[in-house]
Amino acid sequence: MFMKSKQTILSGFAVAVLASSLSICTLNARAADDFDASTIAKDSALASRVPQDIAAKGVLSIGSDTTYPPAEFLAGEDGQTPEGIDVDLAKAMAQTLGLKLEFVTAQFDSILPAIGPRYDLGISAFTITNERYKAVDFVSYFNAGKQWAIQSGNPAKFNPDEPCGKTVGVQTGSTGEKAVKGFSDNCVGAGKPAIETVSMPKQTDLITRLINGAVDAVYAGSTNIGYAVKQTNGQLETIGAITYPSPNGIAVAKGQTAWAQLVADTINGLIADGTYAKILAKWGIGSAAVAKAEVNPAVQE
Length: 301
Fold this sequence. Notes:
The chain is of the alpha/beta class. The protein has helices at about 25-30, 45, 50-55, 85-95, 110, 130-135, 175-190, 205-210, 220-230, 255-270, 275-280; strands at about 60-65, 65-70, 70-75, 80-85, 100-105, 120-125, 135-150, 165-170, 195-200, 215-220, 235-255. The strands form 2 sheets. The protein has an 8-stranded mixed sheet, sandwiched between helices. Strands 2-3-4 form a 3-stranded antiparallel sheet.
């Protein structure tokens, strides 16, 4: 995103309560689930291309920040079960490749450095950026933008076109954090007060602070913001247009070209058979779909 390069989608998720009135039970409310990954058959042709080390262990290990609904979050009766767009997509990929899935919760900014040594893939609504390309390769799988969220009624009188001097919440290590720093630098350059940035590892904690009035606005992926607004029952609203539309990507270790292409081919198979559309429809974000997954698509920033 994104900009958070988590600009925006789902894997393992330990959701903190968004607010005193927003429980995990509330987060669980969504459209009827008509997606069942267990019904997906193994594709022997694709499975035969799985890297030897992954095939030998029989497990697909995914690193994800599970505090970013609806992409990835923790829910279920135990409050520790990963759910979300990225989680469902990872389940579908693992089934297709004949692998078990290990969805690991990790702090967002720790995931990319661990792709390869710790995780086979990183799926955590990463916005694809040229800076991130220096560390990993990406397979595009989703489109998202950035958006502002505020308390309903805008008691802080926040103006997205004039954020100088306001207190803004951003997720640590996200493209949103980088973007807000740029906004603040522009404020200072124009002789105006800097933006007071509140950077936190968990997006859900930022939403809680916004509901409680501890920050004037939160800047994050449009998918995440839209979901948070919907789940807070009128306590929050969006303001301003969606900006910085860009692809999200699945992170693959740098230089593992064959593995990255297999990931892309697997997703494209899920697109072709309708599974991909079903997953996005389940979470109400069909408009963010891509027509084709690509390895290392060019991005404009």
